[in-house]
Structure prediction request, 734 residues.
Amino acid sequence: MKRTLLFAVSCILIGWVSAQEKHEIIGTNQLNEYDYFASVNSLEKVKDKDAGVLRKLAHGYDMIGNYPNAEACYATICKRPDRIANDHLEYARALMKCQKYVEAEDQLKIYSQLDPKDSEMERFKLLNESLSKYAAQAATIKIQNAPFNTEQEDFGPVIYNGKLLFTSSRKKNEVVIRKWLGNRLSFLDLYVADINPSTNEITNIQPIPSKKVNKKYHEGPVAFSPDGKQAYITRNNYEEKAIDGTRHFSLFVSNLVGETWSEPEPIVFNSNDYSVGHATLSPDGKTLFFASDMPGGKGGVDIYRSHWENGTWSIPENMASINTSSDDMFPFFHESGVFFFSSEGYPGYGGLDVFICQYKDDDLRQIRNVGAPFNSPGDDFSVWMNKDGVTGMISSNRAGGKGNDDLYTFTMEKPFAFARNIRVLAKDEKGNRLPGVLIKVKDQNGKELATLTTDADAEATYETSETGAFLIDGSKKDYFESSEKVVVTDESPENLPADLVLEKDPGFMILVKVLDKKSSAVLDSVKVTLINNMTGKEEGVFYTNKDGQIKRPIYDKKLNDRVSYNIRLEKKGYLPKGTTYNKELTVPGVYDVSKDLNLSIEKMEVGTDLAKAIDLKPIYFDLAKFNIRPDAAVELDKIVAIMNEFPTMVVELGAHTDCRGTASKNLELSQKRADASAEYIKSRIKDPWRISGKGYGESKILNGCTCEGPKKQPKYTETQHAVNRRTEFLVVKI
Prediction:
């Protein structure tokens, strides 16, 4: 049932032929009549004849689920001189069903070489890589075989009005038991069972009592309209056969009138010449999706849709966005917008795999293999999901079941989420596109998720079904690295842009490396403000990396030109620092500022001298005076800024003199200067009590320059005296 929508009852007569030809003709007729078990017995007797017989034998083994024998047949065919390209494709599919994915990928490559026009093979190029991707993207799913399965076929679940309906070939209490040649099991009927609401236990399984539904041949599966008033039943066409004697499947609808279901009536687009079945409806009930092998499709069985218009169903439309040249069937449309279907035309684990896509903008998009354990090397199909979006049932003939097709219950950790595409576009600073940029995608913790390279159009795409912040880093030879942050939320559109601008390396670059003054450790996340002193413009605000560095290009400069930058360094918990860098560009390359200037910054703590930490210029006073000069005010304003930035900092301002003059006069003068400086700062900060001034006179000479004593003192230079004339700003409390 799951592998074909056809049922044949034709009969072909055999005239006088040789014994070998007779076995082939009989086996072929049995295959055409879907008597697969008898067919393989007949064709085994003549399997060495040619590749054509082996193909039929392999198909027969495949249809009865004997995948190892089907694989062996195709392995033999592909070694024969009379093989064709398609033999390697079928061999690959047989290998996949036997979980030999590496060997399958090899056969797919051979097929692509022999038939390069088959564009669908592009998606199979990296089969094993695809399976790894499916496993990584799969939601956490628990699959369990339903306890009420039998050794016969049980599939096609749906819950309606608190009861479970499903399709089964299980044994019935009938005098005459009709069996289908295809699998030697009873014809399919629709069954109904009770569901215990507290335990979910399934009991009282019975064929649907209505004689309007279960008849002589196949019935099922069934789908209900969203309002529950219509039932769409897949069944054999009882009215007429095709010209070749095939009795196709058709789609019938039964209406609920009061509490009674009407006689099922055929849908308008049924035909004696092809099959129609496996229906599902959109959440609004206005669009019908179904599977069919009607002419004009992509090949095999395709999925179609029809709209309810003017009291009837419109001409079916092929869902070309998801159909392949192989079988695509068993659609199920969940109310959340998730569209399920089963297919052999996409990379998968073998046989039919379950895929999901999103019904958006009147089309099906973002096709994705659900992954294992939802899918297996067998046939996985006919999904039904509860309103919660995380529980439901699936049908499968995977190994380990009760036999043939079984029903499985599933529980997922979270609902299916469709991927968003982060679309990276790399350009240079002039807007020119940059192919060949190495892109590294990281999560918000810095863990690398993927490595990509921009294509000929300078684009690269990263697909994710996760939400959160993503860091996009780009690098290319002769360009500076660039980063962009992209935040994905549940409300984000399907495509999110990430524009990366990589600046061309002009040949000159400035390097700023910041260290902790006390430990000499590199400091990351230091805010570096660069101001070009020659233009007066700010060139930008940057943050040091894990190596404590920023690197910036120097533009519009040639050899022997000069540069001048004002560099300000800021980091939380550290004292800010400003410095000026002047340099002549004598050779191309990187100019390391730290080789010429002290770029260490000091952690703000008790005992720190703010004057030294921020490279404060000396506070100058006129001779024997203590008024604040304009040049001194500039430096004192720097202390004001720091104390306003650290509102709990308490500072002692200490004024010192050199040894010239008497000690008492120096002490008096230093106190007046300390008081004047402190008052200047107090008038400009919050909580003025946080700073006090103290004059030390010449009591704390740093270099031994003394001017008084019993012995004649040496003559000191002005430079030596200047060391002792200083103003300190010591942090005494935080």
Observations:
- The radius of gyration is 41 Å.
- The CA atoms of residues 242 and 272 lie 5 Å apart.
- The chain has five domains: 19-125, 215-412, 420-502, 508-601, 610-733.
- Residues 1-17, 178-184, 241-245 have pLDDT under 50 and may be disordered.
